[in-house]
Amino acid sequence: MKYDFEIKEISRYDATEFIQKLHYSKIMPRLTKHFLGFYMPQQLQLQPLLVGVLTLGWGTQPKGTINKLFKGLGSEDYYEIGKMCMLEEMPRNSETQMLSKTIKWLKENYPDKKFLYTWADGIVGKPGYVYQAANFLYGGFLWTNIYITDKGEKLHPRSTKGLCDENVIFEKKRDPTFFDNRKAERIYWLTQDFLDHKKILKIHGKQFRYILPLTKKARKMLKQSSVAWTLNYPKHKDLEWHVSTKNGKQQLKSLPNIDSNAEEYNSRNINAHK
Q1: Residue 1 lies in a domain
Q2: Does residue 261 sit within a domain?
Q3: Which residue of 119, 128, 155, 165 could cross-link 147, Cys pair, CB 3.0 to 4.6 Å?
Q4: Residue 72: left (phi > 0), alpha (psi -120 to 50), or beta?
Q5: What is the overall mean pLDDT for the chain?
């Protein structure tokens, strides 16, 4: 079924509240420029129904991300999809239609943008089927890491400063010479002994890269990219997970359980919009 979604820019608060009820990751990207709400007109109602939200902005290194792929380009040349979700009762192809509307919106409102860029979180079981259905091009994968606590809370390494500080104290008590010959008493990646002590898993998995050229000129630029963009899409069989242990990485048959409602360490970031 085809829907004639209406796009409106909505507030950060409203977008965040909607996303956190539905998305597997409740932490919002910091560098967000647009919060797009997708409404389905309702008969016999005065207000259209908000059925989806998509955010546009950039990741942690806006210029570096695009410049590595296309030398000379900067953050002004693209947008990255940060979050995207819809009401669960919407039909399966609704997200593809939402992407189609987003592309049309970008071309009408930001005609100078060359690319729409995004990642699919293979590490949480997402090959990126919605981007494949929308004819995005696939540009390979990167290995990435997450932590999962014994309560099922997913932690990004960038959000573990408090745990890293705790890890420093742990290692100093365990071995007073741990930081000898080091420049500073700092830990950026949680040590295996500390992970075992806290019952936290360090998981290694794939992150799949996708892009959509928004102009004819941008499509021609694909040949100059540092990566090959193809339609050779990843599938579920391409998902892979490894867990860190004292004996090195061990492959897992599946991803350990993640509880999207667990907020012991992420609570501050989750509630930052309030």
Answers
A1: no
A2: yes
A3: 155
A4: left
A5: 93
